[in-house]
Design a protein that fits this description.
The chain has a domain of 203 residues: Rossmann fold (3-Layer(aba) Sandwich), CATH 3.40.50.1100. It contains 20 helices and 13 strands. The radius of gyration is 20 Å and the shape is globular. The strands form 3 sheets. Strands 3-4-12-9-10-11 form a 6-stranded mixed sheet, with helices on both faces. The chain has 432 residues and is an alpha/beta fold. The chain binds pyridoxal-5'-phosphate (PLP). Pyridoxal-5'-phosphate binds next to helix 12.
Length: 432
């Protein structure tokens, strides 16, 4: 399968090039030239399949032409060593728990898949590949842990100083080995801009091989379609309309859902659930896309002022505002509303949300119609945001899974940088 750029200004590339380059030469995002539908038989049998089995079927539709079947099967099965349970929180509202992976956020799925796919493509090559990743918190940990110890790959995590939670920071600053953490004096958008500049730096690219593990990389974002199918598989009543509410930042997750729908998953609507960074919500209302500097909120993984995957959404629907609003609606909530939702769901439903999931839940509680079933993506475990969540539900009420406790024991190691490209470039030039 060939991959084209959303800017349509550079030749199509193979999957291998799309994955190793990350971003297209014309700064566009790669898109698969076709979206192959799943056959009717797949949906008939879906409820009897495991997450791994159904994901392998979906993966073949994207990657089947480019990766030997046995290899792809191994990649999928080794990536998905955990499930994504569907838990009923209130009447017709379900939580799709995506936090059962090693770093307790949904990004484990894409990051683990990408690490294995990249490793497959590198094969016996001797050249070192440098993975650059900008993170607002969870990407860094998922990517760092997904790539930890993978030979031939070094990971450089750029994160905004003082803007990620303790546990998030520990998850990528304590690993050592092939993982380096760069603490940037700026916000997430600055980190993302530094990474993008590196990809445009032709001189640098002659010297070292770099790739991106942000959701701009097709190997990270396409596998996120897997769990939309898994949610459907687990849904008992498949006769009602299904609405997915997706707490969104860079919009990789939501875009993967749109792909799942194009493959035949019967989704009635998507809700782009935003915090105060409501750029897409505004677009849905007005048809005007106006990026802004991001605002800091308590749902910090969604503090994005210029969501990179929005280009993919525009491309999927040929820039047609009407076509896009047929597929999705939006909402935006303040920090106070997020806290209020966290508390009321905890007290009244006995379910502990994380701040991002709370945005998703609230969107459903306000927008769901009587004939619809709502599924919100619970994108991270609440213990990843212990400080914020404890402030709302009280100290001692946020149990931390063992796998997160283990991270807290490590010692933080990072290199501090100002948010300017010249310093970052100097660092990159020193790599081999
Ligand atoms: C990354 C992240 C999001 C936003 O996902 P996008 O794909 O960037 O829209 C939401 N919640 C959590 C917990 C995240 O880590």
């Amino acid at each position: 399968m060939k991959y084209y750029s959303t800017n349509h200004n550079t030749p199509d590339v193979t999957l291998e090039l799309a994955v190793t380059q990350g971003l297209a030469a014309d700064r566009g995002l790669f898109m698969p030239e076709r979206i192959n539908p799943m056959p009717a038989s797949f949906f008939k049998n879906i409820s009897s399949m495991s997450f791994q089995e159904l994901s392998f079927e979906v993966a073949k539709k994207f990657f089947g032409e480019d990766i030997p079947e046995r290899t792809l099967e191994k990649i999928v099965f080794n990536t998905l060593t955990f499930d994504t349970p569907l838990v009923e929180v209130s009447d017709h509202i379900y939580s799709l728990e995506l936090f059962h992976g090693p770093t307790s956020a949904f990004k484990d799925v894409g990051a683990r898949f990408m690490a294995r796919l990249l490793s497959h493509f590198l094969g016996q090559e001797k050249k070192m590949v440098h993975v650059l990743v900008a993170t607002s918190g969870d990407t860094g940990s998922a990517v760092a842990n997904g790539f930890l110890g993978v030979p031939g790959i070094k990971v450089h995590v750029l994160y905004p100083k003082g803007k990620v939670s303790d546990i998030q920071e520990k998850q990528f600053t304590t690993l050592g080995q092939n993982i380096t953490a760069l603490e940037i004096d700026g916000n997430f958008d600055d980190c993302q801009a530094l990474v993008k500049s590196a990809f445009m730096d032709e001189e640098l690219k002659k010297k070292i091989t770099i790739t991106s593990a942000n959701s701009i990389n097709v190997a990270r974002f396409l596998p996120q379609a897997f769990y939309y199918f898994n949610a459907w598989a687990k849904l008992e009543d498949k006769t009602r309309k299904v609405v997915f509410s997706v707490p969104s930042g860079n919009f990789g997750n939501l875009t993967a859902g749109l792909f799942a729908k194009k493959m035949g998953l019967p989704v009635s609507k998507f809700i782009a659930a935003n915090n105060l960074n409501d750029i897409v919500f505004k677009y849905l209302k007005t048809g005007i896309y106006e990026p802004r500097p991001s605002l800091s909120t308590i749902a910090n993984a969604m503090d994005v002022g210029d969501p990179s995957n929005f280009a993919r959404i525009l491309d999927l629907y040929q820039n047609n505002h009407q076509a896009i609003t047929n597929e999705m609606t939006g909402t935006s909530f303040t920090d106070d509303q997020i806290r209020e939702t966290l508390l009321s769901v905890y007290q009244n439903k006995g379910y502990l949300l994380d701040p991002h999931g709370a945005v998703g839940y609230r969107a459903l509680s306000e927008l769901l119609r009587d004939d619809e079933t709502g599924i919100f993506l619970e994108t991270a475990h609440p213990a990843k945001f212990t400080e914020t969540v404890e402030e709302v539900v009280g100290k001692g009420n946020v149990p931390m899974p063992q796998r997160l406790q283990n991270f807290m024991k490590g010692e933080k190691l990072s290199i501090e940088f100002p948010a300017d490209y010249e310093s970052f470039r100097g660092y990159l030039n020193g790599l081999d």
